[in-house]
Write a structure and sequence with these properties.
By secondary structure, the protein is mainly β. Helix content is 6%, strand content 39%. The strands form six sheets. Strands 14-15-16-17-18-22-21-20-19 form a nine-stranded antiparallel sheet, with helices on one face.
């Protein structure tokens, strides 16, 4: 990774010390060098669907899900319901992005976003202190215990509580190596829409928090339609995705940028830093969304964003994007999930590609201001992969993607041979079982997959969100 300049690598032991002091570090996946080779596989024949664990079957006691035979599943938490473990807490709905951390007692901390989209004052602020008392989004933190019972596991919810309040449309985000969750707002509304505070920022929630944190917007990281982040553990550089539509010749939907934030003090984001946008060398405004070749290497560099917090961001959510684009920045279609490995960053475009069914890119830095971008997978049809959203890496395994497409929703894996493997199917046969998949993340030993179904996103909507845990013989398949 980058080795020089003011953003030199932060010593990994220093990160671990910070994480220990914070009550547990973010769980970093190892490098998946095998996935780099799938570009060649895709170029020579493309990815295929493969039921490598067997055809999915109904999950016992959970009629809305199908899982591989031999696997187990539990529903840990539901939104729009009273908490089963914390008296007086009505669990907010709209579960979205999520990450997992170790706690000092051996249990796990899940931090979960709530993508509530209520208008100003129409929802209920989750707790105090609140960044904006008229906004109903935020995060909750869960404590989960995993115990071995004979040859099986027992996974149970111990506690859950609000850990961030007064934010809006908290979609995704990502974990940091120093033991915190970065929660991203996917909307730039503010006073012009009746809110007391401007929105469209990133907020930090320590894994060690035991209640609502003091909400501080990290304005230097940009005010735009945020989706996910991924942190390079060697440098502390934060990569950010933007969930904005690309529609040719439509100035209101100009596309999304891929950004990086160079912190003044790695590990202390509130100290400020510099925001930049990715650009393809010698091809200003390059459009990655259509007509791409899997496996082709694009040399890239980074251009500065002069004003990461523009005054017109509420009226023009693409105000930050337009700055980068005018400097030559590349155009993506709805960038969503992001995940860091030792040698780079995976990002997904939800509706990119000629079939508009999704793309997976890999960015590898080659110097302080330069790198390479490769399209490692493009879905040829929604029947193969339909609108990938949140992504995660299984420790020692493959890339997992949550779908946000049409009809039934899936969590699917992408293995080193370029095959798409069905892992979980969320049935969409009725209103009670509808909703996108989100928040996939693994326990540090790679045994348990956690994920969410989103449910309703406004006050009064009764379609419940849910958080699940799935485990089984991962070693018997390619993931």
């Amino acid at each position: 990774m980058i080795q020089n300049g003011p953003f030199a690598p932060l010593d990994r032991r220093a990160f671990l010390r910070r994480a220990a002091g914070a009550g547990g570090g973010a769980l970093l996946a190892p490098s998946l060098t095998g996935l780099w080779s799938l570009a060649g596989c895709a170029a020579s024949g493309g990815a295929v669907r493969a039921p490598s664990y067997g055809a999915l079957v109904p999950a016992p006691g959970i009629p809305e899900l199908e899982i591989p035979p031999g696997f187990r599943c539990v529903r840990l938490s539901e939104g729009a319901r009273p908490s089963t473990v914390r008296g007086g807490l009505d669990v907010p709905n709209a579960f979205d992005g999520m990450a997992v951390f170790r706690l000092p007692n051996g249990n796990l901390r899940l931090i979960r976003n709530h993508e509530m989209v209520d208008d100003a004052g129409a929802g209920v602020t989750l707790a105090t202190p609140a960044y904006d008392p008229l906004a109903s989004g935020g995060t909750t933190s869960l404590e989960v215990r995993i115990r071995s019972v004979g040859d099986d596991l027992e996974v149970e919810l111990v506690d859950e509580f609000v850990s961030l309040a007064g934010t809006r449309v908290n979609c995704a985000g990502g974990p940091t190596p120093w033991g915190s969750w970065l929660s991203c707002e996917e909307n730039t509304w503010g006073a012009g829409h009746g809110f007391e505070r401007p929105h469209g920022y990133i907020f930090e929630v320590p894994a060690s928090a035991t209640g609502p944190v003091a909400p501080v917007p990290l304005v230097a990281m940009g005010r735009f339609v945020h989706e996910a982040i991924a942190v390079d553990p060697a440098t502390g550089i934060v990569y950010e995705t933007e969930d904005a539509w690309y529609v040719p010749d439509d100035a209101t939907r100009p596309g999304a940028g891929f950004y990086r934030f160079l912190p003044e003090q790695p590990g202390t984001l509130a100290a400020g830093g510099r925001l930049q946008m990715l650009a393809v060398d010698d091809r200003p405004g390059y459009v990655t969304a259509r007509g791409q070749t899997q496996g082709a290497v694009l040399p890239v560099h980074w251009v500065d964003i002069a004003d990461p917090d523009p005054a017109n961001a509420e009226d023009d959510p693409a105000a930050v994007f337009r700055q980068g684009h005018s400097a030559g920045g590349a155009v993506f279609a709805r960038l969503e999930g992001a995940a860091a490995v030792d040698d780079g960053i995976y990002i997904v475009s939800t509706n990119g590609g000629d079939a508009e069914a999704g793309q997976v890119f890999f960015y590898r830095p080659t110097g302080p201001d330069h790198g390479e971008l490769v399209l490692v997978f493009e879905s040829p049809s929604p029947d193969v992969l339909d609108a990938p959203d949140n992504i995660c890496l299984r420790p020692g395994g493959a890339l997992f993607m949550c779908e946000d497409g049409r009809g039934d929703q899936y969590v699917r894996g992408l293995d080193a041979d370029g095959r798409i493997i069905d892992v979980v199917r969320h049935l969409a046969g009725s209103e009670e079982t509808a909703g996108e998949m989100a928040g996939a993340c693994f326990s540090p030993d790679g045994r348990v997959l956690f994920f969410n179904t989103q449910g309703g996103r406004r006050r009064g909507e009764t379609l419940a969100s849910a958080t699940y845990a799935v485990w089984g013989p991962w070693h018997e398949g390619p993931l």
